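DM between two lab members

TW: hey, do you still have the Methionine synthase reductase entry open?
JB: yeah, one sec
JB: this one, 699 aa:
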Amino acid sequence: MCCESKRRFLLLYATQKGQAKAIAEEIWQQAGAHGLEADMHCISEMDKYNLETEKDPVVIVISTTGTGDPPDTARKFVKKIQDKTLPPDHFAHLQYGLLGLGDSEYMFFCNGGRTVDRRLQELGAQHFYDTGLADDCVGLELVVDPWIDGLWLALKEALQLQKEKEGMNNAVNAVSSSLSPAPHAVHELKLSSEVQNLKLEDEGARDSDILSQKLDDINLVAPARDTEPSLVHSVPPVSQSALNIPALPPEYIEVEFQNTQGENPHLSSLISEGTTFEVPVTRAVQLTREDAIKTALLLELDIADTAFQYQPGDAFCVICPNNVSEVEKLLHILGLSEKGDDFVCVKVKQGTKKKGASRPQHIPERSTLKFILTWCLEIRAVPKKAFLRALVECTSDAGEKRRLQELCSRQGASDYTHFIRDSNVCLLDLLHAFPSCKPSLSLLIEHLPKLQARSYSVSSSNLYQPGRLCFVFNVVEFPAGPSRPVSRKGVCTGWLAELVAPLLHPSNNSQSTKGESTSTEKISIFPRPNNAFHLPADPSVPFIMVGPGTGIAPFIGFLQHRQKLREQHTDWEFGETWLFFGCRHQDRDYLFKQLQCFLKNGTLTHLKVCFSRDSSTAEVAPPKYVQDVLRLCAKEVARVLLKERGYFYICGDKKHMADDVSDAVVDILSMEMEADKLEAMKILAMLREAKRYLQDVWS
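TW: and the structure you got?
JB:
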């Protein structure tokens, strides 16, 4: 029940991985200090709020998932407001402010928030505060923090206008319908995800939601020899500044150790996305040579006895555990090495000040401690500032405490970005760097996010290989560095590589040949269908595929499927197919040399390859990258896209490839159409809109 002495506003969040919820909770915590009461709900809880009758201002925090979709928790809400029968004044009474979260590494930046924002505007809702779009690529806090700072004045102005309007309506009730509505004030705050457009000012001591840490509270000066800042050391001005640090998040989780025995929950209970399938790994092949820079593996799964279905171009998710040795290290630091196999009961702490506190859905009510740390918590997650703030209270050394305060403060924003976020620092790295920090198990459960299943592109066709599903991945490597004391492999790729090692390197006593399996190792997977990244429905339509490195994976499935269709339907007309593939070295990481087979049997019409690190003695150096080869084929690319209305597919790394390919396509369209670059960009946008220019990319 909202406190009557404080003015109320409705606070809704839609989250996929917990970030939007954490930001909404920060807004809820700060509201009290500004004399306001936030009525907070997940946007999916439509039985607890009603926008059709809402009179108070509404604040919405919403993330983006997939290739620009609203988060799963917002799907019902979005479907409801996109009802075409709703009149244009359906939300004319509503005033709102929206904060969208996204990542500019992906094509449809903040599209979840933009979709909701645009539709609310179409239905007559009005902004009381400008929309903020925060970019996880450069740091969400660079937009989130100033957006929240400006929110309070905007809310108070909106509430004051509402109060005045209500008073006017009461006074002139009889003729209110003939009066023009009061002008709607919009509190201007132009926010951009671009760092250079932000002007963050040190506001000094703020209200009770911020603790001002004075220099004389803690006597710490970085050692004179450290002229450069690092994870554990600061330099002026940060080291000499009074700090604005976030309010301490309220504790809300309680963990009880139990002497009873039992069984851990099944992994399927941890997944809310749908049905999971436990399937055997039947084959593993290393596609790269031992001296290649990256190790690429192909795994084959047996799905014959399951209801798992897919199309070429789809993705699926693998449920993976944290690294065993990392879990053991964490147990050791927590002082719980002897209790890893003990069952624990996780519940909400009595008397907590956290609004609507509940046990996180990804944490079983009862399981072993090791199960929680292995399968439930993302222990590799980059710690958020709220987590750092909580860790301050668990740190006994004064110098370490001060540095953690700096890293979560406004003044230390740049240090946080450089030494934690960009360095991909995780909890174990922090605990190694700050040895006097001894957090409790309950604190980890409160602040570490859910361990996410990892997504992979399917690299096969069920038509070509019935009952089999293949996928390809590089084993991710994180080298040791100043902020990371040890090198690590990717959570899922490292686990998979270790799991299939016996298949790749069978013992001398084994009768099986390399890559062939007699193993019964199983992994749990669930489908993640792609709504657009599929072969053209009309087989006569030509298409172009661009997939360097492991980006070739879905196109192997495309070509297998096309080959089988050609065998089964000899009377069909099939359009031409182009594949642009690139890698570093022809003899080390040319992943699928059997592409020549597709070329010979006519499934693949044109194959263009390039090798970026191979030296050449040719008079004219060959192209190094796929975008260079595309430019050499400019006339053909333009013909396929413009004259023959073909499709264009890209798969692979976004930052270092997909954007360069897009630029190349714009140049090609501009040159072949004899149009300026802006016109070519418009054509490319139309191709995207028509789902004829499709991407499956990752950062």
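TW: got it. The chain has three domains: 7-164, 253-447, 543-697. The radius of gyration is 28 Å.
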